[in-house]
Design a protein that fits this description.
The protein is an alpha+beta fold and 354 residues long. It contains 6 helices and 17 strands. Strand 13 and strand 14 form a beta hairpin.
Length: 354
Amino acid sequence: MGAESGSSGSNPRVGWKYWLAATYFRAMAILSAAIFGAVALILLGLAAPAPSVPLADFIRAHRVPSALASVVLAGFSLWAWAVYRSSSATTEGSGRTPVRGLLDRAFLLRVLTVLTLISVGLTTVMGVLIIRPDICQSWRLTWICPTHYSPNGVHDSNMELFLFAIQTPAIVLEKSPDQYAPKTLPSDFNAVAAAKIGARSDTESYKVVLGVHNLQQNTPYSTLIERVRLIIDSIPASPFPLNVYSTGDSVVYQGEPFLSTYGGQTTGAGLSARYEPLPVTHVQLSAGEPDTLAIKLVSDVQTTLTFHIALTYQIANESGEHELVLPHRFQVVFSDGTNWHPYKIQDGHLVPGA
């Protein structure tokens, strides 16, 4: 009696580990059958493919948790396979009858081994692709780890254009200076920039730095930046007096240098930005290549400009041109020294001074 009780208590088939492993493999078998059936219906023309894959959308939105889940799933699959294999070997060695309703143990173990290898393989690949998304482009697996676009930009299927930085010697204080504190000063992207007329040096001029990224892959043809234009949206009245806060930023952004000059054009006009090194050539981007465009805007007249930027590019083996229009609206005030009133931070407050 005691021997029977001990034998029954040590039966691996009634243990929670075996139950968990068997339940996992049953679920995997059902899931595999459902996926196979769905693919078969699509291939036979009896069903249409889904316009989007919720799992892929979730992975795109939660890359790190998805990578961790892939590792956990792969490890659990190996653990479940080891538990089931150990249980089968123990049962065969003891001569006990297999649980009713299950197929031959040897055949079932082979099936589970294949399922485990597939599960581990897929989850490993998914984890690698999430951690190293550059592999996706070379393998053309953009459905699982697509290019991540900047929230400050715009893109089409060939090119991405985005705002990288704004370099300005000063920002306009639109309210009374005594209403500002160091933490309430406007940021570069949201602030109205200010520069002196005629300023052309890198440290004193106004500069918009754009990022570009050639999204094409596996092609020998380059993409050429044909034109960059600053399109004037409005010319509002300039502040008087013009109170400014010097940014004191020693960072000088580098990139492909472009120069645009305002000479009194009216609203709706496009200011051409000339590529400075060799005006007769173009910036070229090979497949997958990123770059930055440093667009310096200067003026010899006092004015306030609100504008947006449009970029025209062409693929080397195509005759047509493509245009990307950056949605961001820029504003800059150009003034001479007579209306330039600088402020600085002192003891947590803004006080007059260079």
